Amino acid sequence: xxxxxxxxxxxxxxxxxxxxxxxxxxxxxxxxxxxxxxxxxxxxxxxxxxxxxxxxxxxxxxxxxxxxxxxxxxxxxxxxxxxxxxxxxxxxxxxxxxxxxxxxxxxxxxxxxxxxxxxxxxxxxxxxxxxxxxxxxxxxxxxxxxxxxxxxxxxxxxxxxxxxxxxxxxxxxxxxxxxxxxxxxxxxxxxxxxxx
Length: 196
Ligand code: Z5A
Prior knowledge:
The protein is an alpha/beta fold. The protein has helices spanning about 15-25, 40-50, 60-80, 95-105, 110-120, 135-140, 150-170, 180-195; strands spanning about 1-5, 30-35, 85-90, 125-130, 175. Strands 2-3-1-4-5 form a five-stranded parallel sheet, sandwiched between helices.
């Protein structure tokens, strides 16, 4: 089972994933918690460039996220899925579509095709969108990285972008109110997985 978590900054994805993984493990399930960008040594180096390096053209940003994703899917996610693990991933291909295509303005068709190429067609079984006003999300973050420092209008476009993707594919997406306590996200996840 491959499940992704998306949303604006400070929505609580990392916190919710940790709580979900804890409960799944208590139930005796095997879980892999992972994230993009930045899993494994290769991913960690790309993450450093992307989030703590100098400004770069949007096209360079795109290819770095894709390089991370291709490695992540092939060396970490697919092997875990093959072992029957539940993979909980903090951001994935939808983030690239929202940030690099919708917000940065790169060609959406190209970005969608590049995502399919990087993932070799892997699509999440479910995606949970932790939706909230970006002002609330940003106020929760202590240390801001390169992308967090973009103006509020950038983060508002991010939120609208995720909502448009989610509304277009309600079979995969679950829109959650991220101003609610973490337990509410955990409950939504277990309601979904218990029906599987
Ligand atoms: N990016 C991209 O452009 N293209 C791509 O393809 C990909 C990513 C994959 C990754 O940053 C950046 O890269 C991100 C998108 C872009 N850009 N920005 N800006 P990251 O991985 O460092 O950060 P993030 O994914 O945006 O996560 P985050 O800012 O760390 O937030 P979070 O994981 O959603 O939240 P959290 O760490 O769980 O919680 C944040 C704080 O809120 C913390 O103090 C919690 O205690 C608190 N919190 C959590 N839940 C709650 C609730 N329910 N109520 C109140 N407070 C809460």
